[in-house]
Amino acid sequence: MKRWICPVLLVVVACMASCAPRERTLVVLSTNDMHAKILCFPRLAAAVAACRDTLPGGLLVDAGDRWTGNAYVDKCAVPGKPIIGLMNRLRYDAATLGNHEFDFGQAFLGRMIDSMDFEVVCANVVSDTCTFPHLAPGVIFERDGVKIGFVGAITNYEGPGHPAGNAANFEGLEFPDPQQEALRCAERMRPEVDVLVLLSHMGDDRDRELLEKTRLFDLVIGGHTHVVRDTIVNGTLLTQTGKDLRNVGVAKIWLRGRKVLSVDYDLVPLDAYEPDAAYQAEVDRYYADPELNRPVGTLGHAADKWGLANWMAAAIADEEDAEVGFYHIGGVRLDSLAAGGVGTARIYDLEPFDSHIAVMRMTPAQMRRMIVAKYNESTREGHRIDLISTTPYEILTDEDDNAFDVRFPALREGRAYRVAISDYVFRNYRELAYAEGGITDERVADALLDELEEDSPLAPDNRPRQRVIRMETKKR
To answer: What is the mean pLDDT of residues 144-151?
Structure first.
């Protein structure tokens, strides 16, 4: 017996099938905190090419800190140019600013932005200077009929009031609250786009704070804290790839019509890809610098982070015949150095900021004031041992982890000591008190190079000289 099917029903079903919203996938590839690690770029190029072959029309974006951390980029004729040239060649679509974009000054950054073939967006930088362009807070792209908006935001928490770095680099600029400005921009853009993404250089902790207040964003691509993140906060995916271009983030946004159904994320290690030959040849040309490849000296054994910080504090003290040396841990840009030969480039990787040595006279009471104030900061740099010193000391804290005293077992109270520090500490630490102080013409990197050349093989001291002691009761 034949089953009768209503021809009208067939027409309705066919119409429903043809009129149903089309499902599609949008891919956003991301990097953050590359810190000029161009040796990894040929593998990134291979990974991006593979993705574009599989899913054409994807976007490639960056969440800040594109330079500072590789001498072959930072010390070339135009600092930063190699990484920007490679990004232009790979056809990045958009990026936001990181704090290290300002390391060579805002006038330099303004000129570099002109050379970037991708959009640079930041909702919370306000410029009234002629040296730095006023940036758009966000940008909208269209792919396969879908509109994707990107909002940019940069930290202002460490300054305070501006990104981490020398305050002089930010003069004439204002950095309003990044969370408020990101939300303000998102509210304006949300009705205009189908997908809304935040490019954030606030740090994953601040990104989480923001997402707990809103569900305006479909995806957050973060940076600044150098961690790996792939987590859902209040219904929104929060991501970060780590640092140094070890990974690329792959966010897959699933849509039905223009409605976002879900967002998935994969962290893809770049060491799984064979380097692209053309990009490798370009990187090799940058690495053929004879001065940066010059061997300087040797380490008798490996130095860890503590060992490098101890060496830097001792080297600047020796350079200036100071009795005490301090070096801030944030200025130690390598996690370790292996035993054996050390070339010029590695010293500039360790100290990429062209820092100078400052010298002054300080009493233990003045040192105590500086250390306690820094430890008690509410910023990300607070509540840790920040100032590594040639002289041992102990930070005493209460049960709430607030410092109230510092013990100096090798110093005599009331005596003024000759002290060497970096110019970053001299310019930026708010509770620095001293006498007869100033910044010298001597560079930190030169002090390290001289000592390495004259005293090899060096034997780094990896033992911490500073520690925190938690007291059982609060200091009254």
So the answer is: 96
| Euclidean distance between CA atoms 185 and 163, whole angstroms | 20
Asked whether residue 371 falls in the same domain as residue 407, the answer is: yes
Residue-wise pLDDT tens digits, 23-51: 999 999 999 999 999 999 999 999 999 99
**Containing H/E element for 15?**
helix 7-19
Task: Please state, for a pLDDT cut of 90, what percent of the chain lies above it.
Answer: 89
Asked if 130 and 273 sit in the same domain, the reply is: yes
Give the CATH number, domain containing residue 221.
3.60.21.10
**465 near 390, Cβ under 8 Å?**
yes
Whether residue 134 is contained in a domain is answered as yes
Q: Is 396 left (phi over 0), alpha (psi -120 to 50) or beta?
A: beta
Largest CA distance in the chain: 110
Is residue 57 within 8 Å of residue 255, measured between CB atoms? no
Q: Which residues of 270-402 form beta strands (DSSP E)? A: 295-299, 303-304, 324-328, 336-337, 340-343, 356-362, 387-389, 393-397
- The Cα–Cα gap between 209 and 296 comes to 46
* Residue whose C-alpha is closest to residue 457's, from 338, 320, 377, 364: 338
- Evaluated on CA atoms 34, 35, 39, 41, the torsion sign reads positive
Q: Is 406 strand, coil or helix? A: strand
For the segment 423-463, what is each residue's pLDDT rounded down to a tens digit?
999 999 989 999 999 999 999 999 999 999 999 999 999 99
| Residue 358, both tokens | 């400052």
